[in-house]
């Protein structure tokens, strides 16, 4: 069975679901908006593979140091997602991830970029940007979930982004 005709449909469905999440936000006009770049086929394929991994682990509880379906910390989920979806080995800890990769401006984010957040005065949380204003991560309160960069908790805590191409 040829799956190629399904790729455009899946891309449209992912885009619509992201747009639906973003449109439910009642945000002031001063919040960040995506750059409007049109994703390439490889960007869409990367996002599709990362969403597949996300759905496999969605709801998995947070566990400090966790790197499996028994529980993930934020960097453990990122490392597992990159390994399973993209066949890429990333550094294991948030600090190591911050020291690697290429710095990306917030207005240049692409699906698969890592986003970092400053909590209690230091960069200690990370997730994977998925397009629109959505990112996937392992939250201490919810476990593996997706959130909005413009969400109440996250919008003022964003600190930087890194790309691992």
Automatic annotation (TrEMBL):
Signal peptide feature range: 1-24
Any one Pfam family match given in the protein's UniProt record, by short name: NLPC_P60
GO annotation (BP), single: proteolysis
Highest rank taxon of the organism: Bacteria
MF annotations from Gene Ontology: cysteine-type peptidase activity
SUPFAM superfamilies cross-referenced by the UniProt entry: Cysteine proteinases
InterPro entries assigned to the protein according to its UniProt record, in alphabetical order: NLP_P60_dom (IPR000064), Papain-like_cys_pep_sf (IPR038765), Peptidase_C40 (IPR051202)
UniProt entry keywords in alphabetical sequence: Hydrolase, Protease, Signal, Thiol protease
Domain called NlpC/P60: residue spans: 44-165
Family the entry assigns: Belongs to the peptidase C40 family.
The name this protein goes by in its record: NlpC/P60 family protein
């Amino acid at each position: 069975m040829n799956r190629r005709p399904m790729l455009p449909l899946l891309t449209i469905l992912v885009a619509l679901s992201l747009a639906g999440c973003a449109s439910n936000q009642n945000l002031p006009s001063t919040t960040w908006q995506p750059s409007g770049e049109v994703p390439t086929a490889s960007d869409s394929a990367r996002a599709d593979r990362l969403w597949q991994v996300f759905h496999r682990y969605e709801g998995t509880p947070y566990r400090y140091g966790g790197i499996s379906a028994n529980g993930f910390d934020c960097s453990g989920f990122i490392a597992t997602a990159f390994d399973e979806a993209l066949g890429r080995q990333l550094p294991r800890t948030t600090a190591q991830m911050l020291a690697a990769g290429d710095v990306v401006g917030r207005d240049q984010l692409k699906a698969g970029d890592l986003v970092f957040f400053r909590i209690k005065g230091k960069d200690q949380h990370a997730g994977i940007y998925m397009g629109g204003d959505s990112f996937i991560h392992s939250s201490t309160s919810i476990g593996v979930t997706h959130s909005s960069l413009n969400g109440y908790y996250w919008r003022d805590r964003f600190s930087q982004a890194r790309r691992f191409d």
